[in-house]
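Running co-folding for zinc ion.
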Amino acid sequence: MPELPEVEIASRQLRSWLSGRRIVSARALRSRVIRGQAQARFAGLSGHGLLDVERFGKWMLLSFDDGEGLLSHLGMTGKWVRRGASEPAAAWVRASLELDDGSALDYRDMRLFGRLIRGKTEELRQAKALRALGPDPLPGIDVERLHAALVRTRRSMKEALMDQRTLAGLGNIQVAEALHRAHLDPRRPATTMTREETARLASAIGESLRATLRDEDSPEPITYVEEGGENVFLVYDRLGQPCSTCGTPIERIVQGGRSTFFCPTCQPRWRGRGAAGKKARRRAPARRLRVPRRGRSRRRPLAARKRR
Ligand code: ZN
């Protein structure tokens, strides 16, 4: 799935394909990607030349002359690909920009979780989706700010880092990789982090992002690991495979409905103070009470307890 490194690579590709070029025709098909916007708004990009491609977390803002803009989010399966304008488009193309050099840029998205939003650049820059983002970690992380954001929440480290307000652009892959590099338990309550551990985590996030960028950068569109692309990651999607540091098989748990991969040796279980630790201790004896008994009906239903 596209996260910060994949979107950074996509923005570099778009910049190189579009710079100095003029759009000769633009169209968007009716799909969830444009969320009810008029197709004519996309056609209105024709005649405009690119000024810049900026990335904010997992969003890209393409700005064109006369103040025209296009906001792009790749969702789960979105990607921009280039072809000759006379060549047939591939499957799942939701929008196309034909350029004055005889090429066409297609936005492909099989699962339709991506977004394309047309508007004036300055309005798009103020969009709620962008204003809600925390700082981008690629240029460097402010450890004090990150620490303040983490100790403010009792959520797990995994969930706190997935929140785009903490840092913009991290997703399931980068969070797993960074927590592994920092030797931190993904279940640990964020509020228990020390300043030193936050500093270690900040370095690990930077290392993970740079390693992925180095491994995936190419002039060709990326094949995401979920699509059968090469797995360049240390723990992500490596259930049962030996940890590259210590050889322990990688484990998988589910947090917030999403898979988390980690090494149980390099990232030992957090057993200190904090909500998750207490909850785990409270819940443990309850598991043995399998037989229905008097008074059971006053307890919360099983499904409700499982969700906690
Ligand atoms: Zn390990």
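Result summary
The pocket of zinc ion is lined by residues 243, 245-246, 248, 263, 265-266 (CB under 6 Å).
The chain has two domains: 4-131, 135-308.
Job closed.
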